[in-house]
Amino acid sequence: MSSSGYSAQDEKVYLQPPAGRRYVRSFLFSRRIDAPFTRVHLIARVLLVLCLSSVQLRAINADRPDLVLAAVLWVVSFLLFLGSGMQARIARLYLLLTLPVLLSLFSTWMLFNPVPGSAILIHAPVYPGYISIGLSIWGALWLAMVGGYYLWRRGLVVGILLATLIALVLGLLFPAPGWTLARIPFFHPLSLLISDRTLLVAITKVIGYSGMVLTTISLVVTSRDVELIGALRQLRIPQPLIFFLSTVFRALDLALLDYNTIRQAQLARAINARPRSFIRRLRDLASIAVPMVAMMIRRSSEIGDALVARGYSLRRSTEEFYETSPWRLLDWCVLLFSLFLLYLALGPYPNLTAAWLA
């Protein structure tokens, strides 16, 4: 839209899709049009997420973990996540996908990062420092279970996991004799040491990283490609770079649409009519690469022809970008809050957990 045709009434329709639509597409899936976090300018949003993540990284420092500050920042991150406008079904899916990662992070810090503290909760030997080579009844049973599962289901991964779990449980409940043939020294003995400080660091790490995941998802969900291009125009980024980025975003959007089309064509041909192994599923995904590359080449030629037909040139000055959001009072408030968070991330600040425990 030309700048000459701009009026004060147009300020109310910045970045708004046609009337009647409830959701709009963003970088990640779609979001509600009236999401509260989208009212903040994109530049202010990015600065807020970066500064908030910086403070969270300082709060989860293993030398000085601050559980109270990490919990407070997690609440802020969760509020931003709620205000991102993501669909409830997609939000629950992301939370479920995040839980295994957080549990693995918690167990990693608990088991493999022993930190001495004032109280020892668990202290048990895990690895004696050598590898024993021999025969045992439960080892033969493990091989039999893996082989039987392979003959039954033609799979190995699930069979190995089930056989290992059953062999460990039976080995603990019913000890069986074994014959050691040789012992090979390897590495050094390892023991499980869990103290109160280890537990504090692990919980703080999980809370901090989960908060950063929530803020990152909130930023990606609430950001649109046209909004990013408008922000780059406000920052006076050179036009060739803006054109390159806008073309990349448009190509990614088209690639997602093409992938959905190819995937639906595979499903229409009953590709999942029978149970398929993990390797077969990977091969099915790899088979999408050939039509995807062909469609991307065709899309690139179509975009080039469309630009030539419209007389586009990088040297020609362009009109004002319509999707350029104005800077409001709310954005200044968010900017001031981001500066406060940056001060907490770089400057001195009291450890809230230490002050609370003192």
Largest sheet: 2 strands, antiparallel
Please tell me the total number of domains.
3
| SSE topology string | EEHHHEEHHEEHHHHHHH
Give the total of beta strands.
6
Low-confidence stretches: 1-14
Mean pLDDT: 80
Radius of gyration: 28 Å
Bulk shape: flat
Helix content: 55-70%
Helix/strand/pairing class, anyone? mainly alpha
Tell me the strand percentage band: 5-15%
| Count of helical stretches | 12
Q: How far from one another are the termini?
A: 61 Å
- Spatial sequence of strands, sheet with the most strands: 1-2
Folded structure, characterized:
This protein has about 350 residues and is mainly alpha-helical. The protein folds into 3 domains: about 20-120 and about 195-225 and about 325-358, no CATH class; about 130-185; about 225-325, no CATH class. About 60% of the residues lie in helices and about 10% in strands. The protein has 12 helices and 6 strands. It has helices spanning about 40-60, 65-80, 90-110, 135-155, 155-175, 195-220, 225-235, 240-270, 280-285, 290-310, 330-345, 350-355; strands at about 25, 30, 120-125, 130-135, 180-185, 190-195. The strands form 3 sheets. A two-stranded antiparallel sheet has the order 1-2. The protein has a two-stranded antiparallel ribbon with strand order 3-6. A two-stranded antiparallel ribbon has the order 4-5. Helix 2 (about 65-80) packs parallel to helix 6 and helix 8 (about 240-270) packs across helix 10. Mean pLDDT is about 80; it is low at about 1-15.
